[in-house]
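Example 3.2
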Amino acid sequence: MPNAHDPDGRTPDDDAVLDRLAALRTADLPVRGGRTMAYVYDSGLAGLDELAARAQAAFAGVNGLDMTVFPSVVALENDVVGRAAALLGGGPATAGTFTSGGTESCLLAVLTAREYARSTAGVTRPEIVLPVTAHPAFHKAALLFGLTPVTVPVDPLTFRVRAADMEAALTGRTALAVVSAPSYAHGVVDPVAEVAAVAAARGVLCHVDACIGGWYLGHRRLAGDIAPPPAFDLGVPGVTSLSVDLHKYAYTPKGASVLLFRDTELRRHGWFAHASWPGYPVVNPTLQGTRSAGPLAAAWAVLQRVGPGGYTELARRVHRATGRLVEGVGRIEGLRVLGAPEASLVAVASADPGLDPFVVADEMRPRGWYLQPQPAAAGSPANLHLTVTAAVASDERIDELLAELAAAVTRARAHGPAAVDPAMVELAAALDPDTLGPAEVALALEFAGVAADGALPERMAPVLAVLQALPPRLTERLLPEVVSRLYRASGAAGAD
Protein backbone atom coordinates (compact mmCIF):
# COMPACT_ATOMS: atom_id res chain seq x y z
CA MET A 1 0.00 0.00 0.00
CA PRO A 2 1.57 3.34 -1.00
CA ASN A 3 2.67 5.53 1.86
CA ALA A 4 0.61 8.69 2.24
CA HIS A 5 3.72 10.86 2.17
CA ASP A 6 5.16 9.17 -0.90
CA PRO A 7 2.96 8.07 -3.83
CA ASP A 8 5.73 5.76 -5.01
CA GLY A 9 5.48 3.76 -1.81
CA ARG A 10 8.96 4.51 -0.51
CA THR A 11 9.36 4.20 3.24
CA PRO A 12 9.39 7.63 4.93
CA ASP A 13 12.26 8.59 7.19
CA ASP A 14 11.90 8.86 10.95
CA ASP A 15 11.36 12.60 10.90
CA ALA A 16 8.46 12.28 8.47
CA VAL A 17 6.77 9.67 10.63
CA LEU A 18 7.17 11.75 13.78
CA ASP A 19 6.05 14.90 11.99
CA ARG A 20 2.85 13.15 10.99
CA LEU A 21 2.21 12.08 14.55
CA ALA A 22 2.80 15.63 15.75
CA ALA A 23 0.35 16.92 13.15
CA LEU A 24 -2.32 14.50 14.35
CA ARG A 25 -1.85 15.69 17.94
CA THR A 26 -2.69 19.29 17.03
CA ALA A 27 -6.40 18.46 17.09
CA ASP A 28 -6.18 16.90 20.58
CA LEU A 29 -6.69 18.55 23.90
CA PRO A 30 -3.41 19.19 25.78
CA VAL A 31 -2.34 16.48 28.22
CA ARG A 32 -0.05 18.79 30.19
CA GLY A 33 -0.68 22.06 31.96
CA GLY A 34 -3.83 21.17 33.90
CA ARG A 35 -6.35 22.76 31.52
CA THR A 36 -7.84 19.42 30.43
CA MET A 37 -9.77 18.68 33.61
CA ALA A 38 -10.67 15.07 32.84
CA TYR A 39 -8.97 11.99 31.39
CA VAL A 40 -5.38 13.15 31.98
CA TYR A 41 -3.27 13.69 35.11
CA ASP A 42 -0.28 15.99 35.24
CA SER A 43 2.11 16.22 38.17
CA GLY A 44 3.76 19.35 36.84
CA LEU A 45 7.13 17.88 37.89
CA ALA A 46 10.00 18.51 35.49
CA GLY A 47 11.67 15.46 33.98
CA LEU A 48 9.09 12.93 35.16
CA ASP A 49 7.70 12.22 31.70
CA GLU A 50 11.17 11.72 30.28
CA LEU A 51 12.08 9.24 33.02
CA ALA A 52 8.87 7.30 32.47
CA ALA A 53 9.41 7.20 28.71
CA ARG A 54 12.92 5.83 29.10
CA ALA A 55 11.78 3.17 31.58
CA GLN A 56 8.87 2.17 29.37
CA ALA A 57 11.10 1.90 26.31
CA ALA A 58 13.58 -0.28 28.21
CA PHE A 59 10.85 -2.83 29.00
CA ALA A 60 8.59 -2.45 25.96
CA GLY A 61 9.52 -5.86 24.57
CA VAL A 62 9.34 -7.73 27.88
CA ASN A 63 6.27 -10.00 27.93
CA GLY A 64 4.43 -10.36 31.22
CA LEU A 65 2.69 -13.49 29.94
CA ASP A 66 5.41 -15.75 31.34
CA MET A 67 7.02 -14.56 34.54
CA THR A 68 9.34 -17.59 34.61
CA VAL A 69 11.04 -16.32 31.46
CA PHE A 70 11.00 -12.66 32.53
CA PRO A 71 11.57 -12.60 36.32
CA SER A 72 12.02 -8.84 36.16
CA VAL A 73 8.22 -8.61 35.83
CA VAL A 74 7.77 -10.36 39.17
CA ALA A 75 10.31 -8.15 40.88
CA LEU A 76 8.77 -4.93 39.59
CA GLU A 77 5.19 -6.00 40.23
CA ASN A 78 5.93 -7.17 43.77
CA ASP A 79 7.50 -3.80 44.53
CA VAL A 80 4.66 -1.76 43.00
CA VAL A 81 1.91 -3.84 44.61
CA GLY A 82 3.77 -3.77 47.92
CA ARG A 83 3.90 0.01 47.87
CA ALA A 84 0.18 0.20 47.17
CA ALA A 85 -0.63 -2.28 49.94
CA ALA A 86 1.52 -0.41 52.49
CA LEU A 87 -0.21 2.87 51.63
CA LEU A 88 -3.75 1.50 51.57
CA GLY A 89 -4.15 -0.51 54.73
CA GLY A 90 -2.71 -3.82 53.60
CA GLY A 91 -1.05 -6.30 55.91
CA PRO A 92 1.28 -9.29 55.62
CA ALA A 93 -1.41 -11.40 53.93
CA THR A 94 -2.42 -8.78 51.35
CA ALA A 95 -2.10 -9.85 47.70
CA GLY A 96 -2.39 -7.83 44.55
CA THR A 97 -2.20 -7.68 40.79
CA PHE A 98 -0.89 -5.02 38.43
CA THR A 99 -3.44 -4.32 35.66
CA SER A 100 -3.85 -2.13 32.61
CA GLY A 101 -6.24 0.33 34.25
CA GLY A 102 -9.21 0.93 36.48
CA THR A 103 -11.68 -0.87 34.26
CA GLU A 104 -9.61 -4.05 34.24
CA SER A 105 -9.09 -3.84 37.99
CA CYS A 106 -12.85 -3.51 38.54
CA LEU A 107 -13.60 -6.32 36.08
CA LEU A 108 -11.20 -8.63 37.90
CA ALA A 109 -12.68 -7.72 41.28
CA VAL A 110 -16.14 -8.70 40.04
CA LEU A 111 -14.90 -11.87 38.34
CA THR A 112 -13.09 -12.91 41.51
CA ALA A 113 -16.19 -12.26 43.62
CA ARG A 114 -18.35 -14.30 41.25
CA GLU A 115 -16.02 -17.27 41.38
CA TYR A 116 -15.66 -16.97 45.16
CA ALA A 117 -19.45 -16.93 45.63
CA ARG A 118 -19.81 -19.90 43.31
CA SER A 119 -17.15 -22.03 45.00
CA THR A 120 -17.80 -21.12 48.64
CA ALA A 121 -21.58 -20.61 48.71
CA GLY A 122 -22.83 -22.34 45.57
CA VAL A 123 -24.27 -19.11 44.12
CA THR A 124 -25.27 -19.77 40.51
CA ARG A 125 -27.20 -16.57 39.73
CA PRO A 126 -24.98 -13.95 41.34
CA GLU A 127 -25.84 -10.32 41.94
CA ILE A 128 -23.67 -7.25 42.47
CA VAL A 129 -25.03 -4.49 44.72
CA LEU A 130 -23.76 -1.00 44.00
CA PRO A 131 -24.77 2.66 44.29
CA VAL A 132 -26.15 4.41 41.21
CA THR A 133 -22.98 6.53 41.38
CA ALA A 134 -20.66 3.53 40.97
CA HIS A 135 -18.46 3.55 37.88
CA PRO A 136 -19.91 1.96 34.71
CA ALA A 137 -17.01 -0.50 34.75
CA PHE A 138 -18.98 -2.55 37.27
CA HIS A 139 -21.98 -2.70 34.96
CA LYS A 140 -19.63 -3.76 32.18
CA ALA A 141 -18.30 -6.49 34.45
CA ALA A 142 -21.83 -7.64 35.30
CA LEU A 143 -22.64 -7.87 31.59
CA LEU A 144 -19.47 -9.74 30.70
CA PHE A 145 -19.52 -12.16 33.63
CA GLY A 146 -23.24 -12.81 33.99
CA LEU A 147 -24.10 -11.01 37.21
CA THR A 148 -27.29 -9.07 37.84
CA PRO A 149 -26.59 -5.47 38.90
CA VAL A 150 -28.75 -4.22 41.77
CA THR A 151 -28.46 -0.43 41.96
CA VAL A 152 -29.08 1.51 45.14
CA PRO A 153 -30.04 5.21 45.23
CA VAL A 154 -27.85 7.77 46.96
CA ASP A 155 -28.72 10.66 49.22
CA PRO A 156 -29.99 13.46 46.93
CA LEU A 157 -28.00 16.12 48.80
CA THR A 158 -24.74 14.39 49.69
CA PHE A 159 -24.70 11.91 46.77
CA ARG A 160 -23.34 9.28 49.18
CA VAL A 161 -25.01 5.90 49.43
CA ARG A 162 -26.64 4.98 52.74
CA ALA A 163 -25.47 1.82 54.44
CA ALA A 164 -29.03 0.87 55.34
CA ASP A 165 -30.05 0.99 51.68
CA MET A 166 -27.10 -1.18 50.70
CA GLU A 167 -27.93 -3.64 53.46
CA ALA A 168 -31.55 -3.87 52.30
CA ALA A 169 -30.37 -4.80 48.80
CA LEU A 170 -28.15 -7.69 49.95
CA THR A 171 -29.51 -11.20 49.39
CA GLY A 172 -28.25 -14.75 49.43
CA ARG A 173 -27.27 -14.22 45.79
CA THR A 174 -25.09 -11.16 46.40
CA ALA A 175 -21.52 -11.86 45.33
CA LEU A 176 -20.13 -8.37 45.86
CA ALA A 177 -21.03 -5.01 47.40
CA VAL A 178 -19.31 -1.96 45.88
CA VAL A 179 -18.54 1.47 47.32
CA SER A 180 -16.51 4.37 45.93
CA ALA A 181 -13.67 6.40 47.42
CA PRO A 182 -14.50 8.75 45.87
CA SER A 183 -17.30 8.43 43.34
CA TYR A 184 -16.25 9.92 40.02
CA ALA A 185 -19.26 12.12 39.38
CA HIS A 186 -19.25 14.13 42.62
CA GLY A 187 -15.95 13.45 44.38
CA VAL A 188 -17.58 12.20 47.59
CA VAL A 189 -16.55 9.14 49.60
CA ASP A 190 -19.22 6.56 50.33
CA PRO A 191 -19.54 5.37 53.98
CA VAL A 192 -17.06 2.56 53.48
CA ALA A 193 -16.86 1.40 57.09
CA GLU A 194 -20.63 1.18 57.49
CA VAL A 195 -21.22 -0.64 54.21
CA ALA A 196 -18.31 -3.01 54.75
CA ALA A 197 -19.67 -3.88 58.19
CA VAL A 198 -23.15 -4.79 56.93
CA ALA A 199 -21.63 -6.75 54.05
CA ALA A 200 -19.34 -8.69 56.38
CA ALA A 201 -22.26 -9.49 58.68
CA ARG A 202 -23.98 -11.12 55.70
CA GLY A 203 -20.84 -12.89 54.50
CA VAL A 204 -20.59 -10.71 51.39
CA LEU A 205 -17.35 -9.45 49.87
CA CYS A 206 -16.93 -5.66 49.75
CA HIS A 207 -14.91 -3.86 47.09
CA VAL A 208 -13.73 -0.25 47.36
CA ASP A 209 -13.33 1.50 44.03
CA ALA A 210 -10.51 3.89 44.86
CA CYS A 211 -9.27 3.96 41.28
CA ILE A 212 -9.30 7.71 40.90
CA GLY A 213 -8.70 8.82 44.45
CA GLY A 214 -6.89 6.11 46.38
CA TRP A 215 -3.33 7.25 45.77
CA TYR A 216 -4.25 10.88 46.48
CA LEU A 217 -6.36 10.11 49.57
CA GLY A 218 -3.77 7.71 50.94
CA HIS A 219 -1.01 10.29 50.77
CA ARG A 220 -3.28 13.11 51.95
CA ARG A 221 -3.71 11.05 55.10
CA LEU A 222 0.06 11.29 55.65
CA ALA A 223 0.01 15.09 55.64
CA GLY A 224 -0.45 16.18 59.22
CA ASP A 225 -1.51 19.74 58.46
CA ILE A 226 -4.65 19.07 56.37
CA ALA A 227 -7.90 17.24 57.04
CA PRO A 228 -7.56 13.47 56.62
CA PRO A 229 -10.07 11.65 54.40
CA PRO A 230 -12.72 9.30 55.79
CA ALA A 231 -11.60 5.72 56.39
CA PHE A 232 -11.78 3.89 53.08
CA ASP A 233 -9.09 1.27 52.53
CA LEU A 234 -8.15 -2.33 53.35
CA GLY A 235 -7.59 -1.33 56.96
CA VAL A 236 -11.36 -1.01 57.33
CA PRO A 237 -12.87 -4.26 58.69
CA GLY A 238 -14.97 -5.98 56.04
CA VAL A 239 -13.21 -4.48 53.01
CA THR A 240 -11.99 -7.43 50.96
CA SER A 241 -10.60 -5.77 47.82
CA LEU A 242 -9.61 -2.34 46.56
CA SER A 243 -8.63 -0.90 43.19
CA VAL A 244 -6.30 2.08 42.77
CA ASP A 245 -4.98 3.53 39.53
CA LEU A 246 -1.38 4.67 39.31
CA HIS A 247 -1.90 6.49 36.03
CA LYS A 248 -4.14 8.95 37.87
CA TYR A 249 -2.75 10.51 41.05
CA ALA A 250 0.52 8.59 41.02
CA TYR A 251 1.05 10.44 37.72
CA THR A 252 2.44 7.44 35.85
CA PRO A 253 1.86 6.88 32.12
CA LYS A 254 -1.42 5.29 31.07
CA GLY A 255 -1.82 1.57 31.55
CA ALA A 256 -1.10 1.26 35.28
CA SER A 257 -3.48 0.14 38.02
CA VAL A 258 -3.35 -2.12 41.07
CA LEU A 259 -6.02 -4.46 42.41
CA LEU A 260 -5.50 -5.43 46.04
CA PHE A 261 -7.11 -8.38 47.87
CA ARG A 262 -7.24 -9.15 51.57
CA ASP A 263 -5.23 -12.35 50.93
CA THR A 264 -3.90 -14.71 48.28
CA GLU A 265 -6.73 -17.19 48.88
CA LEU A 266 -9.28 -14.67 47.65
CA ARG A 267 -7.10 -13.49 44.77
CA ARG A 268 -6.69 -17.00 43.32
CA HIS A 269 -10.40 -17.17 42.47
CA GLY A 270 -9.88 -14.63 39.71
CA TRP A 271 -6.91 -16.27 38.02
CA PHE A 272 -7.21 -18.33 34.85
CA ALA A 273 -5.13 -21.45 34.24
CA HIS A 274 -5.27 -23.98 31.42
CA ALA A 275 -3.09 -27.04 30.79
CA SER A 276 -5.46 -29.21 28.73
CA TRP A 277 -3.97 -28.46 25.34
CA PRO A 278 -0.73 -29.43 23.59
CA GLY A 279 0.90 -26.04 24.03
CA TYR A 280 2.57 -24.33 26.97
CA PRO A 281 0.77 -24.19 30.35
CA VAL A 282 -1.16 -20.90 30.58
CA VAL A 283 -1.83 -18.92 33.74
CA ASN A 284 -3.20 -15.38 33.60
CA PRO A 285 -3.72 -13.15 36.65
CA THR A 286 -5.29 -10.48 34.40
CA LEU A 287 -7.71 -10.41 31.48
CA GLN A 288 -4.76 -10.09 29.15
CA GLY A 289 -2.45 -12.80 27.93
CA THR A 290 0.51 -11.08 26.38
CA ARG A 291 1.11 -7.78 28.13
CA SER A 292 4.03 -5.45 27.75
CA ALA A 293 6.02 -4.78 30.89
CA GLY A 294 6.56 -1.23 29.65
CA PRO A 295 3.76 0.39 31.68
CA LEU A 296 4.83 -1.56 34.77
CA ALA A 297 8.43 -0.38 34.44
CA ALA A 298 7.32 3.19 33.82
CA ALA A 299 5.05 3.11 36.88
CA TRP A 300 7.83 1.66 39.02
CA ALA A 301 10.26 4.36 37.87
CA VAL A 302 7.82 7.18 38.62
CA LEU A 303 7.02 5.78 42.07
CA GLN A 304 10.76 5.61 42.80
CA ARG A 305 11.34 9.16 41.59
CA VAL A 306 8.49 10.90 43.41
CA GLY A 307 8.48 8.84 46.60
CA PRO A 308 6.09 9.01 49.57
CA GLY A 309 7.24 12.49 50.58
CA GLY A 310 6.77 13.83 47.08
CA TYR A 311 3.30 12.35 46.74
CA THR A 312 2.31 13.71 50.14
CA GLU A 313 3.32 17.20 49.07
CA LEU A 314 1.43 16.86 45.78
CA ALA A 315 -1.63 15.67 47.70
CA ARG A 316 -1.34 18.66 50.04
CA ARG A 317 -1.25 21.04 47.08
CA VAL A 318 -4.20 19.37 45.36
CA HIS A 319 -6.27 19.40 48.56
CA ARG A 320 -5.75 23.12 49.10
CA ALA A 321 -6.39 23.93 45.43
CA THR A 322 -9.62 21.94 45.46
CA GLY A 323 -10.83 23.87 48.49
CA ARG A 324 -9.97 27.16 46.82
CA LEU A 325 -11.84 26.07 43.69
CA VAL A 326 -14.95 25.05 45.61
CA GLU A 327 -14.99 28.35 47.48
CA GLY A 328 -14.47 30.31 44.28
CA VAL A 329 -17.25 28.54 42.40
CA GLY A 330 -19.59 29.44 45.27
CA ARG A 331 -18.88 33.12 44.58
CA ILE A 332 -19.87 32.93 40.89
CA GLU A 333 -23.52 33.88 40.50
CA GLY A 334 -25.51 31.09 38.89
CA LEU A 335 -23.19 28.21 39.83
CA ARG A 336 -23.23 25.72 42.70
CA VAL A 337 -21.11 22.74 43.74
CA LEU A 338 -22.94 19.45 44.12
CA GLY A 339 -22.44 17.73 47.46
CA ALA A 340 -19.37 18.35 49.60
CA PRO A 341 -16.34 17.05 47.67
CA GLU A 342 -14.00 15.00 49.87
CA ALA A 343 -11.37 14.36 47.22
CA SER A 344 -10.05 16.27 44.21
CA LEU A 345 -13.14 16.04 41.98
CA VAL A 346 -15.71 18.81 41.78
CA ALA A 347 -19.14 18.76 40.12
CA VAL A 348 -20.40 22.24 39.18
CA ALA A 349 -24.09 22.65 38.38
CA SER A 350 -26.29 25.60 37.50
CA ALA A 351 -28.31 27.48 40.12
CA ASP A 352 -30.04 29.51 37.41
CA PRO A 353 -32.59 28.07 34.92
CA GLY A 354 -31.26 30.45 32.31
CA LEU A 355 -27.72 29.09 32.61
CA ASP A 356 -26.87 25.84 30.83
CA PRO A 357 -23.72 24.17 32.20
CA PHE A 358 -23.13 22.51 28.82
CA VAL A 359 -23.07 25.94 27.17
CA VAL A 360 -20.58 27.04 29.83
CA ALA A 361 -18.36 24.14 28.78
CA ASP A 362 -18.65 25.18 25.14
CA GLU A 363 -17.60 28.70 26.12
CA MET A 364 -14.59 27.45 28.08
CA ARG A 365 -13.16 25.20 25.40
CA PRO A 366 -12.06 27.88 22.90
CA ARG A 367 -10.20 29.50 25.80
CA GLY A 368 -8.16 26.32 26.24
CA TRP A 369 -10.07 24.72 29.13
CA TYR A 370 -11.91 21.40 28.99
CA LEU A 371 -14.57 20.88 31.67
CA GLN A 372 -16.28 17.51 31.29
CA PRO A 373 -20.08 17.62 30.79
CA GLN A 374 -22.08 15.18 32.94
CA PRO A 375 -25.74 14.83 31.86
CA ALA A 376 -28.50 14.68 34.45
CA ALA A 377 -29.12 11.17 35.80
CA ALA A 378 -30.30 9.35 38.92
CA GLY A 379 -31.22 12.54 40.75
CA SER A 380 -28.02 14.37 39.85
CA PRO A 381 -28.60 17.48 37.69
CA ALA A 382 -26.59 18.33 34.60
CA ASN A 383 -23.15 19.53 35.66
CA LEU A 384 -19.52 19.97 34.77
CA HIS A 385 -16.84 17.68 36.19
CA LEU A 386 -13.49 19.19 37.15
CA THR A 387 -10.53 17.00 38.11
CA VAL A 388 -7.93 19.00 40.04
CA THR A 389 -4.39 17.73 39.46
CA ALA A 390 -1.06 18.98 40.72
CA ALA A 391 -0.41 20.89 37.50
CA VAL A 392 -3.28 23.28 38.25
CA ALA A 393 -2.82 23.26 42.02
CA SER A 394 -1.53 26.76 42.58
CA ASP A 395 -3.33 29.91 43.67
CA GLU A 396 -2.49 31.60 40.39
CA ARG A 397 -3.84 28.80 38.19
CA ILE A 398 -7.01 28.31 40.25
CA ASP A 399 -7.65 32.06 40.16
CA GLU A 400 -7.12 31.99 36.39
CA LEU A 401 -9.59 29.12 36.06
CA LEU A 402 -12.18 30.90 38.22
CA ALA A 403 -11.84 34.11 36.20
CA GLU A 404 -12.30 32.20 32.94
CA LEU A 405 -15.27 30.34 34.42
CA ALA A 406 -16.96 33.56 35.55
CA ALA A 407 -16.52 35.08 32.10
CA ALA A 408 -17.85 31.91 30.45
CA VAL A 409 -20.93 32.05 32.67
CA THR A 410 -21.64 35.59 31.49
CA ARG A 411 -21.32 34.56 27.85
CA ALA A 412 -23.37 31.38 28.38
CA ARG A 413 -26.18 33.30 30.06
CA ALA A 414 -26.29 35.67 27.08
CA HIS A 415 -26.27 32.72 24.67
CA GLY A 416 -29.09 30.93 26.47
CA PRO A 417 -29.64 27.22 27.15
CA ALA A 418 -29.48 24.62 24.39
CA ALA A 419 -33.03 24.08 23.09
CA VAL A 420 -34.61 20.67 22.55
CA ASP A 421 -37.80 20.19 20.54
CA PRO A 422 -40.26 18.47 22.93
CA ALA A 423 -42.17 16.92 20.02
CA MET A 424 -39.00 15.31 18.69
CA VAL A 425 -38.12 14.03 22.16
CA GLU A 426 -41.58 12.50 22.46
CA LEU A 427 -41.23 10.87 19.06
CA ALA A 428 -37.76 9.52 19.87
CA ALA A 429 -38.90 8.24 23.25
CA ALA A 430 -41.43 6.01 21.51
CA LEU A 431 -38.65 4.16 19.67
CA ASP A 432 -37.72 0.67 20.84
CA PRO A 433 -33.92 0.57 21.32
CA ASP A 434 -33.88 -3.18 20.69
CA THR A 435 -35.52 -2.98 17.26
CA LEU A 436 -34.00 0.18 15.79
CA GLY A 437 -33.06 -0.22 12.13
CA PRO A 438 -30.42 1.76 10.23
CA ALA A 439 -32.93 4.35 9.00
CA GLU A 440 -34.28 4.99 12.50
CA VAL A 441 -30.77 5.21 13.92
CA ALA A 442 -29.79 7.74 11.25
CA LEU A 443 -32.90 9.80 12.00
CA ALA A 444 -32.27 9.76 15.74
CA LEU A 445 -28.63 10.78 15.29
CA GLU A 446 -29.62 13.56 12.93
CA PHE A 447 -32.04 14.80 15.59
CA ALA A 448 -29.18 14.70 18.09
CA GLY A 449 -27.00 16.83 15.81
CA VAL A 450 -24.58 14.11 14.67
CA ALA A 451 -23.66 14.34 10.99
CA ALA A 452 -23.92 11.32 8.70
CA ASP A 453 -20.13 11.23 8.34
CA GLY A 454 -19.71 11.10 12.10
CA ALA A 455 -18.42 14.65 12.43
CA LEU A 456 -19.36 16.27 15.72
CA PRO A 457 -20.32 19.94 15.91
CA GLU A 458 -17.98 22.46 17.50
CA ARG A 459 -20.57 23.24 20.16
CA MET A 460 -21.63 20.08 22.00
CA ALA A 461 -24.33 21.57 24.23
CA PRO A 462 -27.17 20.89 21.73
CA VAL A 463 -26.06 17.26 21.27
CA LEU A 464 -25.76 16.69 25.01
CA ALA A 465 -29.13 18.31 25.64
CA VAL A 466 -30.81 15.87 23.26
CA LEU A 467 -29.03 12.80 24.62
CA GLN A 468 -29.90 13.88 28.14
CA ALA A 469 -33.58 14.21 27.20
CA LEU A 470 -33.83 10.72 25.70
CA PRO A 471 -34.55 7.58 27.74
CA PRO A 472 -31.24 6.12 28.99
CA ARG A 473 -31.64 2.84 27.08
CA LEU A 474 -32.14 4.74 23.82
CA THR A 475 -29.09 6.89 24.54
CA GLU A 476 -27.08 3.73 25.25
CA ARG A 477 -28.23 2.32 21.92
CA LEU A 478 -27.22 5.45 20.03
CA LEU A 479 -23.82 6.13 21.61
CA PRO A 480 -22.10 3.13 19.95
CA GLU A 481 -23.53 4.31 16.64
CA VAL A 482 -21.93 7.72 17.15
CA VAL A 483 -18.55 6.19 17.95
CA SER A 484 -18.76 3.68 15.10
CA ARG A 485 -19.09 6.55 12.65
CA LEU A 486 -15.83 7.99 13.91
CA TYR A 487 -13.86 4.76 13.42
CA ARG A 488 -13.49 3.78 9.80
CA ALA A 489 -10.75 1.72 8.16
CA SER A 490 -9.90 4.50 5.74
CA GLY A 491 -6.25 5.00 6.49
CA ALA A 492 -6.98 8.58 7.48
CA ALA A 493 -4.04 8.76 9.88
CA GLY A 494 -1.62 8.43 7.02
CA ALA A 495 -3.27 10.97 4.78
CA ASP A 496 -1.96 14.47 4.22
